Amino acid sequence: MSALAINPAVADPAAVAAAIARTGAILHGHFALRRELHIDTAVRFRAIGRDPDALAVIAAQLAGLATWRWPGARVLSPESAGFFLGAAVARLHGLAHAVVETDVRRLPTATLATGELAAGDRVVLVNDVGSTGAGLEPMLDLIAQRGAQAIGVLLFAVVGADTFAAWCNRRNLMGHHLTVARWGELTPGAATCAGCAEGLPLVPVTEFS
């Protein structure tokens, strides 16, 4: 679990660590990404999504951090890997689950793919990994367009807890995360990596679908 630090507010961190480890969701190596970004650790949230028992643990521990009233709320997530977590949270609380489409970069859009959002709905945004919160803005736009109200955000992992918290404060949202990506000793990769050739720093962790 050196790649992800579990939020100390989680009720059962040992269960979270065991669930993640069992799925093999954390990859170690050297991965070249687009725009010369490169990493030595990646998280495949879909690996967690494909393990019902692990997903149930993750959803329960993350939802347990929430500070809002669940009855009558709706869950909104993107159709990427975050769908698995959103669906699990919705099942946990017996809520309706709506899903937005993603673009070519696999980022959420303001287009509803399945489910409904109506005026007056209280909506919880759920996704797998986030950093600045900017990727969630289209989902907030959709909620506003439908006359609904975003009440909170749940993320499996954040890259920078302070940055995520600052975005939530600006948007007047309650936000909670299960894990935080850690900066650690990062090793250079192969000569074929554009990021290494440019001497660019590695990204601490990212999500692979």
Key features?
209 residues, alpha/beta, Rossmann fold, 7-stranded mixed β-sheet, 3-stranded mixed β-sheet, 10 strands
Give structural notes.
- With 209 residues, the chain is an alpha/beta fold.
- The chain has one domain: Rossmann fold.
- The chain is built from seven helices and ten strands.
- A seven-stranded mixed beta sheet has the order 1-9-8-7-4-5-6, with helices on both faces. A three-stranded mixed beta sheet has the order 2-3-10.
- Helix 4 links the parallel strand 4 and strand 5.
- Helix 1 runs antiparallel to helix 3.
- The radius of gyration is 17 Å and the shape is globular.
- It starts with a strand and ends with a strand.
- The model has no long low-confidence stretch (mean pLDDT 86).
Structural category: alpha/beta
CATH class identity? Alpha Beta
Number of domains: 1
CATH third-level topology: Rossmann fold
In terms of DSSP E residues, the strand content is 25-35%
Assign a percent range to the helix content. Answer: 25-40%
Question: In the CATH hierarchy, what is the architecture at level 2?
Answer: 3-Layer(aba) Sandwich
List low-pLDDT spans: none
Q: Tell me the number of helical segments per DSSP (H or I, 4 or more residues long).
A: 7
Q: Look at the structure and give the mean pLDDT.
A: 86
Largest sheet: 7 strands, mixed
Order of helices and strands: EHEEHHEHEEEHEHEHE
Strand order of the largest sheet: 1-9-8-7-4-5-6
- Give the overall form: globular
Rg computed from alpha carbons, rounded to a whole number of angstroms: 17 Å
